[in-house]
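Example for tutorial group B:
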């Protein structure tokens, strides 16, 4: 057995990262660029989902945990409800704006520019899923999706364009070599 130490429970780790001084219970640890808290629970998970899970048990697959309070950093179970993706999308345009502003104001992203650049390059090179990248960098798949779709760190987007072109060029080269190569 190697360096074994008693693990804190998910609830203990969760509770230690919540500020309950206001009506909204604010996630004080890592938040993604949309302002949603992230906690490790067999992979990076969104803290509001974990809040729901600790309060009510597992949530049904395919449903989203939505906020009545428009505060993505909030994990107060009283402010969370289960909705369909449709409910979530309807709310999103307004909420996205808020979330982005919160993310920027608090400089929440702990990824460095070079890590984001690596994510963009790896994703552009292909063969790796957003989920796998998220696990490698300790962020949620949703956060990876926002990065590669330019919702976060959009000033680094030229990297992904460059990497895509490089990947295309190398594929074309390989195709040419393949065609012209020894039989
Ligand atoms: Zn709230």
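The residue assignment follows.
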């Amino acid at each position: 057995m190697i360096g074994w130490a008693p693990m804190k429970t998910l609830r203990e780790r969760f509770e230690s990262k919540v500020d309950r001084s206001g009506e909204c219970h604010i996630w004080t640890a890592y938040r993604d660029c949309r302002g949603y808290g992230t906690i490790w629970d067999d992979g990076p998970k969104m803290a509001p989902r974990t809040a729901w899970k600790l309060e009510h048990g597992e949530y049904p697959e395919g449903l989203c945990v939505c906020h009545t309070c428009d505060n993505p950093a909030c994990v107060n179970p009283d402010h969370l409800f289960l909705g369909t993706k449709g409910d979530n999308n309807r709310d999103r345009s307004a909420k996205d704006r808020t979330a982005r502003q919160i993310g920027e104001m608090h400089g929440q992203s702990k990824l460095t520019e070079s890590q984001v650049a690596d994510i963009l390059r790896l994703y552009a090179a292909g063969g790796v899923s957003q989920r796998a990248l998220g696990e490698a960098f300790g962020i949620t798949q949703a956060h990876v999706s926002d990065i590669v779709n330019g919702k976060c760190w959009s000033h680094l987007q030229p990297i992904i364009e460059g990497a895509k072109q490089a990947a295309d060029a190398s594929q074309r080269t390989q195709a040419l070599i393949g065609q012209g190569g020894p039989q």
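The pocket of zinc ion is lined by residues 24, 69, 71, 74, 76, 79 (CB under 6 Å). Compare this with the pattern of hydrophobic and polar residues in the output above.
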